[in-house]
Amino acid sequence: MSLSVAGTATIAPLTEAEVARIRADFPALAEIVNGEPLAYLDSGATAQRPQQVLDAEVDFLKHSNGAVHRGAHTLAGLATEAYESARETVAAFVGADAEEIVWTSNATDALNLVAHGFINATAGRGGAAAQRFVLSPGDEIVVTEAEHHANIVPWQEVAAHTGATLRFVPVDDNGIWTVADAAGVITESTKIVAFSHVSNVTGFIAPVEEVVALAHAAGALVVLDVCQSAPHRTLDLRALDVDFAAFSGHKMLGPTGIGVLYGRKELLNALPPFRTGGSMIETVTMVSSTFMPAPQRFEAGTQPVSQAIALAEAVRYLNAIGLDRIEAREEQLADRLLAGLAEIPGIRVVGPARGVARAGLASFDVDGVHAHDVGQFLDDKGIAVRVGHHCTQPLHRRLGLTATTRASAYVYTTEAEVDRFLAAVAGVRPYFGVSE
Amino acid sequence: MSDALSGLYQQVILDHSKQRSGDRLLERADATRFERNPSCGDEITLQFVLKPGTDIVEEIAWQGNGCSISMASASVLSQLAPGLTVTELQATIDEFRTMLRSKGVGEPDEDVLGDAVVFQGVSKYVMRVKCAMLAWVATEGTMADVATARD
C-alpha cells in the first residue's frame, strides 16, 4: 500500500483468511437476501453482532440478572459487579477512567446530556462549580457544517435557551474542512467546539489535536463525536485531550440501547445533571435533593444493564483482533471502494480524494438516479447500503445533493463483497435507462 | 433481476419519472401544499386547481425532487385527476392507499385507479409506500385547504 497514514505503515492489515474466520462468528452475515448471500455494507449505520456478544447478553440474563446498585441479594451483587466491570472495560478501550464513563441510551442521548448540562448551568443549577458551563449572549458555540444532526440540533437548543450564538466551520465542495477553516471561526468568544472525529458521510478524519489546541487556547471546551472512530481505530481520549466524547454501542458490534459519554472527571463532577430521579441522588427531602458524583449523577432510573455487559464483550472481541489491524484493513477496503467507483461512469464520490486518509466508507451520487432507487437496486442483489441524507441535511445541501448512497465496511467485510457491490453499482444507470 | 424489482420499476414508472406530466408551477392555484418525506428528504410542491365554480378538478401541477417512485406517482396523478370530482379524486386516493398498504396481496380496482395500478409492485416494499404516496398526500392537503376555504 502506498497510502500514508501516520502510525499504520507497519501494522499488518487483517487478511482475507482472518476475515473469513471472523465472519463465522456473525450469524446475521449468513442470511440470504432476495436469493443472494447478504453483502452487509451498512455498518456505519449499525454493525452486526458476533455470537460472543449475543451470548454475553443472554448468559447475563440467564444467570446474573438483578437490579444494580440496590438490593442485597446475590444476583443484585453479581449484576452490579458485571455492570461496573463493563464500565472499566469500556473506559480502558478509550483511554479513560471508569468514573469518566457515563452510560447513556445512545450517542445522541450522550450529546444531549452535555448540551442540557450547559442549559441547566445557565439556568442557575449546579452552583459555583457549574459556572464554567454558564453561557450568555455573545458567547459562541462552534460546530462544523459536516456534522450529524445529533451534533447540531442539541447545540441549536443550547443557543436558543442561553442566548449564545451557534456558528459553523464551513466545508468545501467535497465536504471537507481544514484547521485553517476552524481557526477562522474559533475566537475568544467560543465556549464550545463540537465536531466529529470521523464523518459518517465523507469518511473525513478530523485534525483533532490541532482543533483541540485552538479551542483550548480560546478557553473553549471540546465535545468530540467518536461514533465513527471508536469502532474502527485505536482511541485515546485523554491523549486527544478532548473534554467530552460520545459514541454508541450498536456501531461497534454491541447492542442498541447503550451509548457512552466520556467526560473529564472534574468536568463531569461539575456538570449539572440532565435526567433526575432515582439512583442519582444522595439525599432527597421534600424541598430539595443532592446528587451523587459522576458517573452516577447522570444515570437516573433503571439502566441498560445487559446492554452494557454485552458492549464490554464487544470491546473484548475488538481488542482480541486489534484496532490497529482493523483500521489498516479498512484503509485497504476504502481504497478498493474508491478505485472501483472511479471506474464507473456517472459516479461522484464525496469526501477526501483517493490516497488521502479516510475511514472505510464511501458516499456517492449516481447521476440521473436517486439514491433510494440505487439502494433498492442493490438490495435486490442482496447488498445492504445506506441511502438518504444520513442525518446530515446541511452537509448534503452544501454538496448540492438531496441524498447519497453510502457503502461502509467493517471488520467482517470481504474484498469479494466490495467487488460485488462495485459490479452492481456499474449496473445501476443502465437499469434505470440513464444514458451517458 | 428479481420479479419483485421488475414489478416495482415497471417501464411505465421509469418513463414517468423521466418524462413527467404536470411538472411545472402555476401562477394561480386554489391551494398549494409542500410535502416532505423527512426520512429521505424527498419533497414536492403541489398545486390544485378546480374548474371555476365547480368541484371538478381542472389541473394538478407540481415540482419536486425525489426518487423515481415519488416523481412517477406525482406524474401519473396529474394525468389521472383532471375531470374527476373532488369526491371521486378522494375515492381514488383512498383506493391507491389501500393498494399500497396491501403488502403485495391486494387486488386493486383498475376502474378507479386507471394507470396508477402500475404502482401495485410498491406494496411489496413497505419502505417505499411513503415515496408513492408523497404527491397523493399533498393533494389531500390541498383538497382540505379548499374545503376549509369554502366553509
Question: What sort of overall outline of chain A do the alpha carbons produce when their principal axes are compared?
Answer: globular
CATH topology of the largest domain in chain A: Aspartate Aminotransferase, domain 2
Mean pLDDT over all positions of chain B: 94
Radius of gyration of chain A: 22 Å
What spatial order of strands do you see in the largest sheet of chain B?
1-2-3
Question: What is the count of helical runs of chain A?
Answer: 15
Poorly predicted spans of chain A: 1-5
Largest interchain contact: A-B, 20 and 21 residues
Give a quick rundown of the structure.
The complex is a heterodimer of chains A (436) and B (151). By secondary structure, chain A is an alpha/beta fold.
Task: Provide tags for this entry.
heterodimer; A: 436 residues; alpha/beta; Aspartate Aminotransferase, domain 1; Aspartate Aminotransferase, domain 2; 15 helices; 16% strand; globular; disordered N terminus; B: 151 residues; alpha+beta; Sufe protein. Chain: A; 3-stranded antiparallel β-sheet; 6 helices; 45% helix; 15% strand
Task: Describe, in plain words, how this protein is organized in 3D.
The complex is a heterodimer of chains A (436) and B (151). A seven-stranded mixed β-sheet of chain A has the order 4-10-9-8-7-5-6, sandwiched between helices. In chain A, α5 links the parallel β5 (140-144) and β6. Chain A has 15 helices and 17 strands. Chain A has helices at residues 16-23, 51-63, 74-93, 107-122, 153-162, 179-183, 208-217, 237-240, 265-268, 305-321, 323-342, 371-380, 393-399, 415-426, 428-431; strands at residues 32-33, 36-37, 39-40, 101-104, 140-144, 165-169, 190-196, 221-225, 244-248, 259-263, 281-284, 289-291, 347-350, 361-366, 383-384, 386-388, 404-408. Chain A has two domains: 16-50 and 322-431, Aspartate Aminotransferase, domain 1; 54-319, Type I PLP-dependent aspartate aminotransferase-like (Major domain) (Aspartate Aminotransferase, domain 2). By secondary structure, chain A is an alpha/beta fold. Chain B is α+β, with helices and mostly antiparallel strands. Chain B has one domain (3-150): Sufe protein. Chain: A. Chain B contains six helices and three strands. Chain B has helices spanning 3-8, 11-18, 68-80, 86-100, 110-113, 129-150; strands at 31-36, 43-50, 57-65. Chain B has a three-stranded antiparallel β-sheet, with helices on one face. In chain B, a hairpin with a 6-residue loop joins β2 and β3. In chain B, α3 (68-80) packs across α6 (129-150). The model of chain B has no long low-confidence stretch (mean pLDDT 94). The A-B interface holds A 34-35, 369-373, 376-377, 380, 387-389, 393, 396, 402-403, 431-433 and B 1-2, 4-5, 8-9, 14, 18, 39-43, 65-69, 125, 128, 131.
